[in-house]
Amino acid sequence: MTVPSDIAIAQATKLQRIVDIAEKLGLSEDELELYGRYKAKIHPGVYRRLQDKPDGRLVLVTAITPTPAGEGKTTTSVGLAQGLAHIGKKACVALREPSLGPSFGVKGGAAGGGYSQVVPMEDINLHFTGDLHAITTAHNLCAAMLDNHIQQGNELGIDPRRIVFRRVMDLNERALRRVIIGLGGRTEGVPRESGFDITVASEVMAILCLAMDLADLKSRLARIVLGYTYEGRAVTAADIGAAGAMAVLLKDAINPNLVQTLEGVPAFIHGGPFANIAHGCNSVQATKLGLKLADYMITEAGFGADLGAEKFLDIKCRVAGLKPSAVVLVATVRALKMHGGRKKTELTGEDLKALEAGMPNLEKHIENVKKFGLPVVVAINRFPLDTEAELALVEKKCADLGASFSLSEVWEKGGPGGADLARKVVAACEVPSDLKFLYSPEMSPKEKIGIIAREIYGADGVDYTAQAEKDLELIHEPGRDNLLVCMAKTQYSLSDDAAKLGRPRDFRVTVREVRLSAGAGFLIAVTGAVMTMPGLPKKPAALTIDVDSDGKITGLF
Fold first, then answer.
1. CA 240 to CA 168: how far, in whole Å?
2. Is the separation of the CB atoms in 284 and 297 below 8 Å?
3. φ, ψ dihedrals at 13, nearest 5°
4. Which of 242, 274, 284, 466 is the most exposed place for a label (fewest CB within 10 A)?
5. pLDDT digits (tens, 9 = 90+) for 266-295
6. Helix extents (H) in 401-444
């Protein structure tokens, strides 16, 4: 039997009008900014209308340490929302916007899969409503104004050797990681070293996702540190007069986007920071709006629980005053076998020994979620070649660890395949819980980084390069030690070494640099070999993506 591709399933689905999807949430057409028949942005006045309404239940979906292909976290999030609707609950889902980098690289799109997708899938995975382009443009406008200030006399005395604000683009492009700009003579700018990050690593992206409203967005943009003067004083976006123009470019992008799942469940898709190099959560605005409009609001955080979930809980929940009622931890038999020693290319055959050997990775992630004081439901995202013996082994291990377990078949069956998971989540939401943060903002940066490394990764301690020590000194001098911490770390290991699978022990984390994101409100501790501008693989997905003369897209996922 031929299994249809995700894009074929999506293209065969008859979509409901977005005004009808909005009506399910109690929104009128006047509260929408329509982008055609199937996409809309939500007017900012909606939250003000609903702000006195009680919140629904917030459910976070995270995962174990993934394989390069991912373990179906988005698919599970969408399937859970559909499963909740299937058992009669009023639910919605809030996800991040896909980046063009992985869409044309190795991981593919980020709209879910099988019969648990958000649609229109092609639009969502490509330009969507233009939010990522607006973020890219606002970021690069600031960079252009900074270089222009230096070219036009440098009134602030900015040291070109100490500029920390790079440019961004929403594609994987390793050739732009390090560049020299301003070549060509006096009229072409001041020559200096610079580089590009991917848009999802931009502080502007983080700010858009954490901002409560347009005024908060503008205030945060103004605090972005661009570089330092010859005397060592920090120069901000406000100092060069860029914040207002940046906010103008983002005035529409800040409003959450509304689409739908294949089964017509409302879905908010807004913001898209990666969790390995940024905080990895959709926007605060979309999350808070969903909580007002539905009884169960499902959201995800990127990559494994050591990355996205930790940042969701320690950063986003703290900033926005959110409190999840339960956490879903997505795992797959194939990923557990990889952590048990099987090669990434040999994960299909039954191997109970490798599966058993990989269980400590699942165990560590369950422990980590419980450290935050939240109930956890393990969702095994079933793949066609998983055997009954393998699934039974995982279920037994979850029982031994005191975690609720559900076999999720949302890829194949959509909402009905997530009904059991939905019931387990509803039950978990009724368990009394008390969200606890890992650290206090008043701790020193090293104390905060050390707690995350020891408690979440299982490290023995943290080492700092000479550059990281200099970065921390620069952060300390103006009194910014009380900012939160956003770790940049490989997603393929609990450690900072992608080769250390399973549950690594007897290792130390190396912080090679610390970046200041004053507008976002956190420090980025860059560890190991993690890159903020990915490169394309030998055979990128772009090689198989095409469009025919009728405009029908193929090969997207």
1. 19
2. no
3. -85, 135
4. 466
5. 999 999 998 888 899 999 999 999 999 999
6. 410-413, 419-429
